[in-house]
């Protein structure tokens, strides 16, 4: 066979496989308890309700559901999503401000495609979601990090970073942030920082990408309005998804922003898939009309909250106390563990797999090589008994390393 690699584009040569997806292949053995994936609990999928909605769609809307649709997405669904975000404090949006995408990952890819030329700079959290890192880097963006703390992305550091870059003649294209139960750290951005982030964007003419897959999964504490709610000038592009509140197999998500920007995303999307799966959109809208998500969400929240509590209790019991700390997230799907600096979670991983437990090493979530002594643990997917046993196993591995 000829050397195909020499024909690859420079962009393709820079592609890297997702570390998380590769890890998941290693942890598919049934005897391994995996805290590695960011997977919802399949027992929480509203299977009967989805089956009934699907049956209704196939009986009454099969022609439109099985046909091509508009690139922007099913209008009724877009209207619902706009109204839903308006209830959360976002003003002056309608269906023209909404684009339905094939999962949030497609939204992140479209952001890279529309905003990033090779060498452009974007600002991301330290740590941040690996899927965002990979999407932006696939368009040869240069990513600069901004530290997080218990209140989310530190906007003082953000302002300093923007000022530094502008002194060097570099204006970042956008700020990427996950304000609610951040992946991987689990922290929530405070309201004051959300407001300040919009102010920074307005002052320096930047776009804010607000990625909010976990906002509905709050167990404790007070709800905080989305960053988009403090945006009067169209600086914020909001991403939401059905993956965590209905089922990820639908591959349905949405982008909300200024109508002109949404139109540009739609044109970029046309070159990818013409339109998002119409059958999935029609079934999802039928579920929305029937109140499936509204009625089922409390069950998901209760289950995940209980699992989080079990994981935290087990960590308190089995993890070494010397130099170990972890986040106690108020929602979402993850807790974030920081270990003594001498511990390298990449090198420790094979030993963990040997002990039949898996996690994601934290270094995967940093753009600057940091995080060798950190790890992300998912509590939503495993059963309660698996969480207890898996944390016990992982605690024993940590004891040997600390």
What percentage of residues falls in helices of 4 or more residues? 40-55%
Broad structural category: alpha/beta
Kindly report how far apart the N and C termini lie: 50 Å
Strand order of the largest sheet: 2-9-8-7-6-3-4-5
What characteristic shape results from the CA principal axes? Answer: globular
Question: What share of the residues does DSSP label as strand, in percent?
Answer: 5-15%
The helix count comes to: 14
Please report the total strand number as a whole number.
14
What number is the mean pLDDT? 95
Low-confidence stretches: none
Secondary-structure element string = HHEHHHEHEHEEHEHEEEHHHEEHEEEH
Rg calculated over all Cα atoms: 21 Å
Biggest sheet, in brief?
A: 8 strands, mixed
List the main descriptive attributes of the protein structure presented here.
402 residues; alpha/beta; eight-stranded mixed β-sheet; four-stranded antiparallel β-sheet; 43% helix
Short description:
Helices cover 43% and strands 14% of the residues. The protein is α/β, with parallel strands linked by helices.
Written account of the structure:
The protein has 402 residues and is an alpha/beta fold. 43% of the residues lie in helices and 14% in strands. The chain is built from 14 helices and 14 strands. The strands form three sheets. It has an eight-stranded mixed β-sheet with strand order 2-9-8-7-6-3-4-5, sandwiched between helices. The longest helix is centred in the last third of the chain and has 27 residues, at 292-318. The protein is globular. The termini are far apart. The relative contact order is 0.16. The model has no long low-confidence stretch (mean pLDDT 95).
